[in-house]
């Protein structure tokens, strides 16, 4: 059954059912898992599609159609978690590498690869699991996912500009392999960035349909990194704010508007090739990134209380779409193209000149598109009782220099939405291509790296 799932191409599987899924699985025994371990990871994954359980019964594996049992292959041409149908939950984390040794860094990536390959198939992070290792040693899995379903977990890794060069000095022998486009994002108008929510040498994006499964993944990767990389900051997200597949309904962001209508979708491979994957020979230093992508990260706070006091007419003018259906104000239905030339009886454009969708639409940006994969967030409230909430913007692009920076510059200067949002975190990562079994994440980057000479 799981074998059947694994044989399907990564991106063409139908999305998981909605998240009101049963979280616990009753199918796979501990004994069954450990027995399978001897048969290697592929066999293990095939036998444990339902996640890992701590039980005493001999049981049958969960059915593939049961909510939460879906797994996505970890290995492939591209990393999972990009055009994979967006899951409902996110735990995103960035890490600073704290060792000077290139060998230790590569070993960390090998260890992360092994753990991620297991966890995405619903298995414990380590082969012994949370309760079977030596009694006198910490377990090689933290245990909070015992009994949980795999929940479509994907784990996507990225490399920040500071992995290559920091304070003008090359690191790990990688300085001459830093792609030209992998630079710290510039300051944009009205940015109010918190350095403790920005940047990082490495990033991990864990997405799943169960929040505890996503947190378990990041937590175990942080545990494995001990002594080699330290978590710099992290962000939880809920309620995807986009669709990456035509089979998904368009969700809503915390402003109450449909978001992701015009996103790049997996079912349009030509658009994905043009806008998402880095092509061969994109630049002389970044050949290792071919087949990968760039991930733009922006933590965008909303001034929710101010927004909630705006009339519906103002809210719709700000976005340029109706709140009910998400249709352009110029007419039609959700997926109609907006008519930016259409004028009302007052001879003013119906989609305002400072409306968000006008400023970001590809026709006003030289055809540039991005694959958005963001999430809502609420991180409690401030001492004045205002919600610390907004949109954790994640966008995959082939070239941030043409597909994000000029558009965000324009938004910072003239987007009516800017009155209601504040960018509080920022980062850019190169997302290496996928790997085959036996390789480690980022293998192509390190293949010809010079020995590190501090
Ligand atoms: C809190 C901040 C934001 C909110 C609430 C927001 C909301 C929306 C909404 C409601 C839509 C229309 C539905 C759709 O086509 O997806 C949209 C479209 C879009 N947004 Fe945003 N957005 C935000 C930030 C950004 C940023 C920072 C960028 C990039 C710099 C961006 C780029 C886009 C793009 C490219 C589209 C599709 C436009 C099209 O093809 O018609 N958005 N956004």
**Element order: H for helix, E for strand:** HHHEHEEEEHEHEHHHEEEHHEH
Instruction: Round the Cα radius of gyration to an integer and report it.
Output: 22 Å
User: How many strands?
Assistant: 11
Q: Which strand-content bin applies to the residues?
A: 15-25%
Tell me the span between the first and last alpha carbons: 51 Å
Compounds present?
protoporphyrin IX containing FE
Largest sheet: 9 strands, antiparallel
- Overall, the morphology is globular
Count of runs of 4 or more consecutive helical residues: 12
Level of helix content? Answer: 10-25%
| Mean pLDDT over the full residue set | 88
Low-confidence stretches: 1-22, 26-50, 55-63, 450-454
State the main characteristics:
454 residues; alpha+beta; nine-stranded antiparallel beta sheet; two-stranded antiparallel sheet; 12 helices; 21% helix; globular; disordered N terminus; disordered C terminus; binds protoporphyrin IX containing FE
Could you write a compact summary of the structure shown?
By secondary structure, the protein is α+β, with helices and mostly antiparallel strands. It is 21% helix and 17% strand.
């Amino acid at each position: 059954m799981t074998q059947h799932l694994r044989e399907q191409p990564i991106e063409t599987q139908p999305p998981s059912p909605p998240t009101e899924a049963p979280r616990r699985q009753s199918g796979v025994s501990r004994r069954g898992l450990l027995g399978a371990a001897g048969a290697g990871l592929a066999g293990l994954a095939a036998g444990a599609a339902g996640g890992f359980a701590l039980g005493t019964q001999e049981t049958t594996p969960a059915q593939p159609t049961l909510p939460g049992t879906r797994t996505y292959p970890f290995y492939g041409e591209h990393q999972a978690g990009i055009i994979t149908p967006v899951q409902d939950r996110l735990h995103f984390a960035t890490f600073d590498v704290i060792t000077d040794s290139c060998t230790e860094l590569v070993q960390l990536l090998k260890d992360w690869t092994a753990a991620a390959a297991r966890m995405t198939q619903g298995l414990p992070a380590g082969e012994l699991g949370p309760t079977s290792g030596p009694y006198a040693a910490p377990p090689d899995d933290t245990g909070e996912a015992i009994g949980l379903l795999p929940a479509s977990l994907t784990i996507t890794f990225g490399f920040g500009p500071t992995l290559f060069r920091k304070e003008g000095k090359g690191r790990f022998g990688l300085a001459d392999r830093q792609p030209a486009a992998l630079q710290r994002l510039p300051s944009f108008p009205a940015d109010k960035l918190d350095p403790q929510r920005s940047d990082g040498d490495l990033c991990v994006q864990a997405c799943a349909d169960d929040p505890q499964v996503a947190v378990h993944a990041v937590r175990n990767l942080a545990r494995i990194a001990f002594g080699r990389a330290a978590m710099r900051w992290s962000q939880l997200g809920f309620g995807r704010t986009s669709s990456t597949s035509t089979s998904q309904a368009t969700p809503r962001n915390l402003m109450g508007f449909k978001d992701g209508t015009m996103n790049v979708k997996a079912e349009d491979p030509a658009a994905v090739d043009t806008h998402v994957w880095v092509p061969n020979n994109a630049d002389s230093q970044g050949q290792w990134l071919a087949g990968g992508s760039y991930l733009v990260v922006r933590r965008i706070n909303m001034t929710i209380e101010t927004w909630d006091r705006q009339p519906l007419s103002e809210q719709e003018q700000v976005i340029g779409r109706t709140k009910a259906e998400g249709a352009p104000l110029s007419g039609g239905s959700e997926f109609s193209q907006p008519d930016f030339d259409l004028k009302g009886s007052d001879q003013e454009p119906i989609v305002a000149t400072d409306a968000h969708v006008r400023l970001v639409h590809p026709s006003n940006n030289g055809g540039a598109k991005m694959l958005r994969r963001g999430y809502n967030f609420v991180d409690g409230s401030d001492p004045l009782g205002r919600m610390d909430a907004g949109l954790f913007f994640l966008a995959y692009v082939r070239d941030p220099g043409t597909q994000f920076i000029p558009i965000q510059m324009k938004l910072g200067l003239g987007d009516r939405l800017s009155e209601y949002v504040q960018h509080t975190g920022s980062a850019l990562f190169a997302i290496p291509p996928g790997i085959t079994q036996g390789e480690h994440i980022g293998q192509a980057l390190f293949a010809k790296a010079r020995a590190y000479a501090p």
